[in-house]
């Protein structure tokens, strides 16, 4: 999440976030 915070502080135009669900049901944000 630190990379997303830095990107937002850098005034980028957009941030892509992929969300997946783990086998135990937790949601995780990632970029692949």
Automatic annotation (TrEMBL):
All copies of domain GP-PDE, residue ranges: 1-32
Any GO BP annotation: lipid metabolic process
Entry EC number(s): 3.1.4.46
Keywords: Glycerol metabolism
Pfam families: GDPD
Reaction catalysed by this enzyme: a sn-glycero-3-phosphodiester + H2O = an alcohol + sn-glycerol 3-phosphate + H(+)
Molecular function as annotated in GO: glycerophosphodiester phosphodiesterase activity
Superkingdom, natural source: Eukaryota
SUPFAM superfamilies hit by this protein: PLC-like phosphodiesterases
InterPro entries in the record: GP_PDE_dom, PLC-like_Pdiesterase_TIM-brl
Name under which the protein is recorded: glycerophosphodiester phosphodiesterase
């Amino acid at each position: 999440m630190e990379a997303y915070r830095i990107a937002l502080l850098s005034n980028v135009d957009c941030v892509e976030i992929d969300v997946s669900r783990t086998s135990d049901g937790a949601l995780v944000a990632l970029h692949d």
